[in-house]
Amino acid sequence: MKKENVKIGMKVVPHSKTVWSELEESNSWETALKRKQNYLYVTAWDDEEKCFVLSEDITDKEGGDFFNPEDFESYQEKETDANSLIINRKDLLYLLSMTYGYIDDELGGMEEENEHSLKLKSIIDKYNILMVDIKSI
Question: Nearest Cα to 55, choosing from 125, 8, 119?
């Protein structure tokens, strides 16, 4: 993949690792595969190492593994139902917090209705989103 095509937050699939170690030694990739998650997130650009940081967790700002852009390709979402989107609950709530400046301490455990829970429910309904807990997959 070309550096100019890489965006922070995008999902990618590594096919090699040319920074510091081999792909088989990547803790992030190993963790993702254990979770049955066939992609990593681009979480940062490291100026010192001159490479991207990839992690299994989109919210991971401290960890991850170093990869050159040539080491990975863009992840292609599998088609499910043409009218629905399946997203990990933690990822959805993180993305919504980036948009609306709010994230629930329990990552979405909203038993009582409030302004934020109603906004979240309206977005889920509007886009027909199926939220799943990655541990339950």
Answer: 8
- This prediction has a pTM of 0.58
Q: How large a percentage of the chain has pLDDT more than 90?
A: 38
Any idea of the CA torsion for 63, 60, 83, 133, to the nearest 10 degrees? 100
Strand 129-132, strand 85-88: pairing: parallel
Q: For 102-120, give one letter per residue: b (16+ CB within 10 A) or e.
A: ebeeeebeeeeeeebeeeb
Residue 110 pLDDT greater than 50, yes or no: no
Q: What is the per-residue pLDDT across 22-67, written as a single tens digit (0 to 9) for each?
A: 999 999 999 999 988 899 999 999 888 899 999 999 888 888 999 9
Provide the β-strand partners of residue 132.
Answer: 88
Are 56 and 33 a contacting pair, CB within 8 Å? no
Exposure of 134 in the CB half-sphere (CA atoms within 13 A): 19
Q: Give CA–CA dist 37/35, Å, rounded.
A: 5
